[in-house]
Amino acid sequence: MSTAAVAEIDDLTVWFPSPGGPPVRAVDGVSLTVRAGETLGLVGESGSGKSTTGLALLRLVDPTTGRIRVGGEDVTGWSRRRLRGLRRRVAMVFQDPQASLDPRRTVGASIAEPLVVHRLAGSADARRRRVAELLDLVGLRPETAGRHPHELSGGQRQRVGIARALAGEPDLIVLDEPIASLDLSVQAQILNLLRRLQRDLGLTYLFIAHDLAAVEHLSDRIAVMYLGRIVETGTPTQLWREPAHPYTAALLSAIPVADPRVERDRRRIILSGELPSPTDPPSGCRFRTRCPQARPDCAETDPPAVEVAPGHRAACLYAGEAVRAMRADPPAPVTGGPR
Amino acid sequence: MSAPVVPSPRAGGEPPGGEPVLAIDDLTVTLGTRNGPARAVAGVDWSVAPGRTLALVGESGSGKSMTVLAATGLAPRSATVTGRVRLLGRELTTMSETDRRRWRGRHVGFVFQDPMTTLNPVLTVGRQVTEACEEHLGMSRRQARSRAVELLDLVGIPAPERRVDAHPHQFSGGMRQRVVIAMALACEPELLIADEPTTALDVTTQAQIVELVADLRRRLGTAVVWITHDLGVVAGIADTVAVMYGGRIVEQGPVDAVFAAPGHPYTRALLAARPRPGAAGEELAAIPGAPPSPLDLPAGCAFWPRCPVRGDARCAHELPPLVPIAPGHRVRTFYPTTADGGATADPTTADGGATADPTTADGGATAEDRHQLRPEDR
Ligand SMILES: Nc1ncnc2c1ncn2[C@@H]1O[C@H](COP(=O)(O)OP(=O)(O)OP(=O)(O)O)[C@@H](O)[C@H]1O
Ligand SMILES: Nc1ncnc2c1ncn2[C@@H]1O[C@H](COP(=O)(O)OP(=O)(O)OP(=O)(O)O)[C@@H](O)[C@H]1O
Ligand code: SF4
Ligand code: SF4
Ligand SMILES: [Mg+2]
Ligand SMILES: [Mg+2]
Description:
The complex is a heterodimer of chains A (339) and B (378). With 339 residues, chain A is of the alpha/beta class. Chain A folds into two domains: 5-106 and 164-226, Rossmann fold, CATH 3.40.50; 242-334, no CATH class. Chain A contains twelve helices and 13 strands. Chain A has an eight-stranded mixed sheet, with helices on both faces. Chain A has a four-stranded antiparallel sheet with strand order 2-1-4-5, with helices on one face. In chain A, strand 9 (221-226) and strand 10 (229-234) form a beta hairpin. The relative contact order of chain A is 0.13. With 378 residues, chain B is an alpha/beta fold. Chain B has two domains: 22-242, Rossmann fold (3-Layer(aba) Sandwich); 262-273 and 296-377, no CATH class. An eight-stranded mixed sheet of chain B has the order 7-8-9-4-10-11-13-12, with helices on both faces. Chain B has a four-stranded antiparallel sheet with strand order 3-2-5-6. In chain B, helix 4 (125-137) packs parallel to helix 7, helix 5 (141-154) crosses helix 7 and helix 7 packs parallel to helix 8. Chain B starts with a strand and ends in a 6-residue tail after the last helix. Strand 11 of chain A pairs antiparallel with strand 1 (5-7) of chain B. One iron/sulfur cluster (SF4) binds at residues 245-246, 285, 287-288, 291, 293-295, 298, 303, 316-318, 322 of chain A. Chain A: Pfam families: ABC_tran, oligo_HPY. Chain A: GO terms for molecular function: ATP binding; ATP hydrolysis activity. Chain A: Belongs to the ABC transporter superfamily. Chain A: Residues 7-252 form the ABC transporter domain.
């Protein structure tokens, strides 16, 4: 796999103003590189800033500070006009295909829109041919072009969303929870489609998802977010075998596994407390209010990301060690309340 | 700080069984819709015993919510409900509306997906938690308040004496769900019905709530009906699983048996389609097509248009009965797979339906899909 960077995010912050109070620090110092041909999985607590990071890559939200480079070009200060070009190179697939498609337009018109905007297919005829080609790519029959979104199943609508994202032949596709709203028995179809398209067309994905089994399945590398920061990055194997950040360890231990025998013998790391407010993150390490291994200096020092193995980084003052200590802890008594 | 590593929710011995708390029999729900009658639930029967958890699993629209709503007399007005429902030995379907409401209020607690549909934003959580019980148990205001503090403590809300006077918006999503659980438990119900209680929550918060309900069930002996579409959650909490498809139960049995030896092609296919740890990058055994609409159910087996086994014409025209394949384990198919490997046909090798010939597939509920998807993607 090539290691050329398709997109680089450098110390990005995105703060949203909130009326009469401090701003929401949705993304607060994120650096990420997405390499050509890879799938980078982005996981983490709800509200940790995953979608905002994805939207910032398309400049659909404005960075407060930091830089964004796409294909080596700094797009941070690009004007509205130039941004149109950016949105050809970076496309997005959203969670709810119902909401992301115009209900009054035919499927064909929705898919053709990026072609028109970016002047990619000259004649109406060429456009029609391209739409048919795109439909074929995502496994839909050409007649689908004449239908409206409400005439399609959820899985078919998501295929249309993917076809639309493919229209501009983007360098990078941001997939924001692309299977979360789909029927259980349809999710695997879409995961297979995404993988096949990547293989055939050499696509690069930033894959945002809650379903960690799906993320593990599709991703070459994974970045874990917590409260506006990336706390750990590594390959799925590195993270699953030896998570180095306590939040990653807790997250992985909380995922239910579809096997009752495994579930019965499992010991979970149950986090106490709640996600702190992104308007007022804790000092030092942001995870310290819920970290079972927090020590006094965790409140003082903002932990930098350190390399714990080649290509495996964690932002914890006790990276590796803290997780080993957590896992060695004796189990809590079976009885007793939730805390 | 207490040690954070805890055993799985069910460790510590099997809960007691006994006479069912809730038993439903041949429940059918038909809804009047703009496009004609929709059969949301058909011929469903199951029961749940004290201290046990029944998980109802199935995809969106398979009839899970409607089953429990109709069973407890909460179906929408447009619904026609038939069948029998016994709650603690009393027949609910023949009770007057007032009696039913009272009986339900006393003996059943509900937890829904979105806590804000249950909570009143303008009342303190303390008032809401015990509101129902003041009526049922004849409590004074003072008694009610101290009971509220007790309940908030029970569900793990820190500093309950202080939080009892807070309003819902001052709580996070996970904490609100705890408040709703406190509310549901206030009258010490024998039955807790939880409809996707963790779907809107983070996995880490979900783990807390699963743990909490399992612990309460153990301590209070409450029977639990837990609705979810997450097979992982089912594996973690259930004693018994009922898998629904197209408004019917297609498989029901002890959790271990259903996961280790699923007898219905749908259950097998669903489990086989999950990404497996350590098998990254492999093609998943996807199920072709989409689930049927309740407006347009196939005449025979509802899974027929997508089934990788699909024996013969009988599947298309005749409704398969629920047949036992092991003690307490039933499946609704003409071609069950049995635990001892005596498979009539093995859909796991059928490569997610790639073997089903699309050109011969006649419509059914997924005609749309068949029409629009290319064969290799179905
Ligand atoms: N336009 C906005 N204005 C104000 N606050 C916002 C806006 N968009 C997002 N936020 C806040 O920023 C934070 C991060 O949101 P974001 O949607 O990026 O999280 P996420 O990780 O994608 O979460 P989820 O998993 O729930 O989708 C949240 O606290 C959210 O409420
Ligand atoms: N009030 C209603 N009026 C008409 N139809 C309804 C109503 N509520 C549900 N339905 C239909 O009844 C069928 C069963 O719905 P139900 O809510 O029981 O599904 P479910 O299995 O709980 O799905 P989900 O996982 O999406 O909650 C669906 O097809 C649904 O569209
Ligand atoms: S820096 Fe301290 S508080 Fe933060 S994750 Fe590491 S051990 Fe926990
Ligand atoms: S009855 Fe026939 S179509 Fe239905 S699940 Fe069984 S084998 Fe498949
Ligand atoms: Mg998001
Ligand atoms: Mg439901």
